[in-house]
Design brief:
- The protein starts with a helix and ends with a strand.
- With 296 residues, the chain is an alpha+beta fold.
- A hairpin with a 2-residue loop joins strand 3 and strand 4.
- The chain has two domains: 66 residues, no CATH class; 210 residues, no CATH class.
- It is 20% helix and 29% strand.
- The longest helix has 15 residues.
- It is built from eight helices and 18 strands.
- The strands form four sheets. Strands 2, 5, 7, 8, 9, 11, 12, 13, 15 and 17 form a ten-stranded antiparallel beta sheet that branches. The chain has a three-stranded antiparallel beta sheet with strand order 1-18-16, with no helix packed on it. A three-stranded antiparallel beta sheet has the order 6-14-10, with no helix packed on it.
Length: 296
């Protein structure tokens, strides 16, 4: 009953308004306020400061700058085998496994389609039909930068508007098609082993996500690719024709969450095999082995 009430109360909430308030609050630079917020957060979630690049809490200009903190070099070694795929984040596996034709498993009694996840883009969905997926949840205490599982060249970014339901375990069990309903940003990469999607899913209080290539993309309406986007709805930015391509190596930072959320990875059919550790509920760390590419 408690879980059901927690979820039901989220439906009428003004998700984006609350997220904007949190965004403003976490960027307050008044020293006593931001120092208290950071210190409380460290105590509340038992943050490991021995892993953090900047250990002086007072040195962070805002709470958000601490939340998106960098780690010390070498704290998260990245797997180095030629065919190994790296876990992109710290967190816990929500679900991982085979994509059944075009459907991804969310929780008992709940699944959702590739096409819905990818903003209605049937062409992108076909690239991952019968492929493999991994959904990883980042809790508030986790490191919140996202790194590349494999070297790749950015082909397209797809922004899909939506709600901002919580993405914790209770919501995943209770909200139908949760990851296809929440706001999200799809980053499509081409790798030496085929297409790879890294999807950043927004959540309650998480209405802001960043990428390292920066700058506002030239968003284009998904259903009218020849026209600049001027209205709300799914939209994309095409990077495939850039004079200077966005190419990142395995382990490179590619983005970050301003507050915590979920990352979904998609791989093509017969492209890779997940590691045995990638099972629901299993804690994971950035850089550990997520799986292995199949031999060509």
């Amino acid at each position: 009953m408690k879980d059901r009430l927690f979820v039901l109360l989220q439906y009428p909430l003004p998700h984006h308004f609350l997220s904007r308030l949190v965004m403003l609050l976490t960027r307050v630079k008044t020293r006593p306020v931001k120092n208290w917020m950071i210190a409380y957060f460290v105590r509340r979630f038992d943050i490991r400061l021995d892993e953090v690049a900047e250990t002086s809490l007072a040195a962070y200009p805002s709470f958000n700058s601490f939340f998106t903190r960098a780690l010390k070099p070498g704290v998260r070694p990245i797997v180095g085998g030629e065919r190994e795929i790296a876990c992109p984040v710290d967190g816990a596996v929500s679900q991982a496994g085979a994509i059944e034709k075009d459907r991804l498993y969310q929780a008992k009694g709940h699944d959702y389609t590739l096409e819905a996840l990818l903003g209605g883009d049937a062409g992108l969905a076909k690239e991952f039909a019968n492929g493999t997926f991994a959904t990883i949840y980042l809790s508030p205490r986790d490191y919140h930068r996202i790194h590349m599982p494999e070297a790749g060249r950015l082909r397209r970014m797809l922004y899909v508007p939506g709600r901002l339901f919580s993405v914790n375990a209770v919501a995943v069990r209770r909200v139908p098609e949760l990851f296809a309903r929440n706001e999200r940003m799809v980053c499509m990469f081409d790798t030496a082993h085929g297409p790879m999607a890294v999807i950043l899913v927004g959540a309650l209080f998480v209405g802001s996500m960043e990428t390292v290539w920066g700058g506002p993309p030239m968003w284009i309406n998904l259903h009218e690719p020849h026209k600049p986007h001027r209205h709300a709805g799914a939209k994309y930015a095409d990077y495939s024709l850039n004079a200077e391509p966005v190419a990142l190596a395995r382990g490179d930072e590619m983005g970050r969450f301003n507050m915590g959320s979920t990352v979904i990875l998609l791989f093509a059919e017969n492209a890779m095999q997940l590691d045995a550790a990638m099972r629901a509920g299993q804690p994971v760390k950035l850089g550990q082995r997520l799986g292995e590419w199949n031999a060509a």
